[in-house]
Design a protein that fits this description.
The chain has about 260 residues and is α/β, with parallel strands linked by helices. It contains eight helices and seven strands. About 45% of the residues lie in helices and about 15% in strands. Bound molecules: NADP nicotinamide-adenine-dinucleotide phosphate (NAP).
Length: about 260
């Protein structure tokens, strides 16, 4: 991780869960982190919590589905900190509903955040790196195990579709970067069930009931720290190694 010391990261979905955990880790490794999400108070609390750490956390209120706000965040990072070297496009939402019972408006919302907004961040990050001649930059897309198969989760079918598309996007970006002879790396990092409350919120199940269900089926979910370990591995490999597509699951998950 030494090579990231003093460099600039932009993380979306930074106000809680995986994003907040990863911001914390990057700041501990000396990075200047632009922490983006919609909830200002949570970003400010994270900044407070990290005061005195080796790096810096800069809260930036940004909705990834708002084109102007995305551009403003990257522009701010460029003018204030010199530009983004690492982009972790982690913001994601899931709205429960089968295809047959779901609403197109919910599908659009999920596409806007999980696919279009995420790819917009990747695009702006990569173009900024190319412009600045940053050849060792990295874009990490946070995908999902549901980006590989949809079995057993009918309520998350559309969410799974967005994560399938995101996984393909990582390869499309890789091809475009190869064309440009750039060594900027793109990784799609896909965990199975993580204990952040994300799935219970998506399905409208109280977290306590979800925890009881997990106990009943004897499934120990991944923790945020497990995802952080995978993300740190992904961005720490030598320049010749691109972790392009990483799937990891709770050992007991019925997948
Ligand atoms: N938890 C799991 O089981 C699991 C499994 C596989 C993959 N994932 C993926 O991991 C990522 C993070 O999940 P998590 O479990 O940490 O979720 P989480 O705890 O619900 O956090 C989601 C984060 O995304 C932000 N966000 C949501 N909509 C946004 C938008 N329009 N613009 C900007 N930020 C937005 C939220 O902040 P604000 O509300 O403040 O904007 C929050 O910081 C997601 O992409 C998810 O699909 C999660």
């Amino acid at each position: 991780m030494d090579r990231w010391n003093g460099r600039v990261a932009l993380v979306t979905g930074a106000s809680m869960g995986i994003g907040a955990g990863f911001c914390e880790e990057l700041v501990k490794h000396g990075m200047k982190v632009v922490a983006c999400a919609r909830t200002k108070s949570k970003l400010e609390a994270l900044k407070e919590q990290l005061s005195g750490a080796k790096g810096e956390l800069h809260p930036f209120v940004m909705d990834v589905s708002n084109d102007e706000q995305v551009l403003a965040a990257f522009e701010w990072a460029k003018t204030t900190l010199g530009g983004v070297d690492l982009c972790v496009a982690n913001a994601g939402i899931a709205i429960g509903g089968t295809i047959l019972d779901g609403k197109p408006s919910d599908w659009r919302s999920q596409l806007d955040v999980n696919l279009t907004g995420t790819l917009h961040c990747a695009k702006v990050a990569i173009n900024g790196m190319l412009e600045r001649g940053v050849n060792d930059g990295h874009v990490v897309l946070v995908g999902s195990a549901l980006g590989y198969q949809v079995a057993r989760h009918p309520q998350l079918h559309f969410y799974a579709i967005t994560k399938h598309a995101l996984r393909v996007s990582a390869t499309a970006l890789r091809r475009e970067l190869l064309e440009k002879k750039s060594r900027i790396r793109v990784s799609n990092v896909s965990p199975g069930y993580v204990d952040t409350g994300f799935a219970s919120r998506a399905m409208g199940i109280p977290d306590q009931a979800m925890q009881a269900k997990l106990k009943e089926i004897s499934m120990e979910p991944l923790q945020v720290s497990d995802v952080i370990d995978a993300l740190i591995h992904t961005i720490s490999t030598p320049p010749r190694v691109e972790v392009h597509d990483l799937l990891f699951l709770p050992t007991d998950e019925d997948y």
